[in-house]
Amino acid sequence: MGSAEAEDTGMEIESTGGPVLLREPTEGTPPVVTDQSALAEACARLAAGTGAVAVDTERASGYRYWPKAYLVQLRREGSGTVLIDPTELDDLTPLRNVLNSLEWVLHAASQDLPCLAELDLHPAALFDTELAGRLAGYERVALGTLVELLLGYTLEKGHSAADWSKRPLPVDWLNYAALDVELLIQLREKLEAELGAQGKLEWAQQEFEFVRTAPPPGPRAEPWRRTSGVHKIRNPRGLAAVRELWQARDELARKRDRAPSRILPDSAIINAVTADPKTVEELQALPVFSGRVQRKYTASWLRHLQAAKALPASELPSPSQPTDGPPPVNRWADKDPDAAARLSAARAALTAIAEDRRLPVENLLLPDLVRRTCWRPPAETDEESVASVLRAGGARPWQVGLTATALSKALQTTAS
Length: 416
What we know:
single chain; 416 residues; alpha/beta; 6-stranded mixed beta sheet; 9 strands; disordered N terminus
């Protein structure tokens, strides 16, 4: 869509001599669908459209505990843009009846698919423009970057980190949200043509299907260990205190549907454990805990700190996080020099393949799969045995075809 067409449709643009800045959607700001009657009308328009449907969501992850969709943005050729507030609708069956039979175009699909699945919305097929950009060899694959590079437009940005649970949503937020799907179909067409020209379209289709059918991730083991700054706490008793405060915060965040960091920042947890306060007054003297809102919780936080001190040694966490994977790579040379040599050879071979095919090496083969295979290689390191290991580790056929031979040779490398 060129600038002349934008002028004809009434799109608000700003010409700077370079990319055209889009400030609002082509047809203006769509009304937000908040009742069943409006949903029925919107779904009828979507059903009458043609081709794939562009899909995006807005969440409130920095504000709310649950990562649900507070706005769903849709656009389809012949249908225009539809903005839906799923929190206001009791029955999304009409939407499911339309969307679940269509191909969806999303940018960074894995971020949006989980909250859409919670609404029982699932694509019949998928095109991920971010992933397509990576496979096509673009170094920067943010939506705005690709739109500017391939379509000549700059999208008005600025509200990605907003509290999308807020009601009513401001008009400029709605413009931002609608623009995220405004050009997705055109972007998809450009990227699909580029992938086809590079002989990578089949690779991309395998990747899209892998993303579409991926099961939801299982619960993370010991999630409290991801507390920012936990590396400063080196003894089991201190780690137990971090765990106690983290779990208490998480429970309160769940109940109040607030982001845990808004209940108690990670830095406050680490400060409390490091300072080891003995009284409420000592805890309230610490940063954050001295605040008006926090003061009513300090007695509870102190009880959790004291509970960690009372734990028997058998219930204290290990200083190191349990893992079923190999040790950190920087320890391989000491622990297993042959494994270190295998990994070095594998990385060199995979980097060469990735550069030759204009791919990020991490998209060629998952680094974790490479490390695991080099640390504990199969008994037989012929190409077919290695291919079987890669397939079992989730590698797609195109990845196996490009890497099995090179990885087989790398696994035969020894430190000597």
